[in-house]
From TrEMBL:
Transmembrane segments: 59-84, 147-163
Protein name: Ion transport domain-containing protein
GO molecular function: high voltage-gated calcium channel activity
Region described as Disordered: spans on this chain: 90-111
Record membrane topology: Multi-pass membrane protein
Domain Ion transport, residue spans: 19-85
Regions of compositional bias (Acidic residues) in chain numbering: 90-104
Membrane recorded as keyword: yes
Keyword tRNA processing included in the entry's annotation: no
Native species: Strombidinopsis acuminata
Chief location of this protein within or outside the cell: membrane
């Protein structure tokens, strides 16, 4: 096995590890981060502090945990919550701006559509030059026929059914 760190050896030279917390200690970085996070959330931090007091210098452990709670729980946690709240407010503002832009855009499009209808009524419809050709007129008549539209829909539905 691995050799325990100097913090888990007591004054008599005996190993005094962290009872019932095999993964929460300062012997490796993952356990140290987990200990700091558990202390930051203030869930069971007193047990961790007592384990540290038992395993190393009492004054240093008290000072360390006092500073850890003051800095992380009361300061950094509030800063993190403030950042989250600020981001939420920014998203709400962006949503409101997008909604206002969409309403303005739809109102502008409605006005343009109304103007286009009025202009179409006033202007005579000019026939496109390619409509003078007899095959183009025949193809246009066939494609704008309801029977042709139903035939195309029947073909598409048949294709979907055969692909199932």
């Amino acid at each position: 096995g691995s050799k325990p760190s100097k913090w888990s050896v007591d004054v008599n030279g005996e190993i005094s590890g962290w009872p019932e917390t095999d993964f929460v200690h300062f012997d490796h970085i993952g356990g140290a981060f987990l200990l700091i996070f558990q202390s930051m959330t203030m869930e069971g931090w007193t047990d961790l502090m007592y384990y540290a007091v038992d395993g190393m210098n009492v004054l240093f452990a008290w000072f360390y945990f006092f500073m850890l709670i003051v800095i992380t729980s009361h300061f950094l946690l509030n800063v993190a919550l403030a950042v989250v709240d600020e981001a939420r407010e920014d998203f709400e503002k962006e949503d409101e701006e997008e909604q206002a832009e969409e309403e303005e855009k739809s109102a502008t499009e409605d006005i343009k559509a109304d103007l286009a209808v009025l202009q179409d009524d006033e202007e005579e419809e000019e026939e496109e030059p390619w409509m003078d050709c007899m095959p183009v007129r025949a193809a246009n008549a066939v494609t704008h026929n309801d029977i042709f539209s139903y035939f195309i829909m029947f073909i598409i539905a048949g294709n979907v059914i055969t692909m199932m």
